[in-house]
Write a structure and sequence with these properties.
Blueprint (H helix, E strand, L loop, with lengths): L11 H10 L3 H13 L3 H12 L2 E2 H8 L3 H13 L3 E6 L2 E6 L2 H15 L1
Antiparallel strand pairs: 1-3, 2-3
Length: 115
């Protein structure tokens, strides 16, 4: 028979605070998926390049040192996660970070790992 676990220091106030701040399970799932996208070095490098300038696939491939098809694959993942946006100029597609939140996530992550 399993032993019942009892909280040693959890007060009703703390429990209420946790309940108020805990996202619903489906939101937590979406957030975990977002962080999975950040778990790839190539995607991080692409986002840092796009943080500096709007770039086309060819230019990103030169900066990152990978094939255009590999970059296109990673951009597709970043687009699906709504981390990058694009615009067309004739036949050329230019990519940039989706918004300032992405800059913030990158900067805070870097700051954290450099501590």
């Amino acid at each position: 028979m399993a032993e019942e676990l009892k909280c040693m220091f959890l007060t009703e106030d703390i429990s209420k605070k946790i309940d108020e701040h805990m996202p619903p399970e489906e939101v937590a799932f979406d957030l975990a998926d977002l962080f999975k996208v950040f778990s790839d070095t190539t995607r991080i490098r692409i986002m840092y390049a796009l943080a500096c300038s709007e770039l086309c696939v060819n230019d990103i491939s030169v900066v990152i040192g990978m094939s255009q098809s590999a970059i296109s694959h990673q951009l597709r993942v970043l687009k699906q996660a709504k981390l990058v946006k694009y615009r067309k100029d004739g036949k050329t597609v230019f990519y940039s970070l989706a918004d300032d939140h992405i800059h913030t996530i990158l900067n805070q992550g870097l700051e954290h790992v450099l501590e």
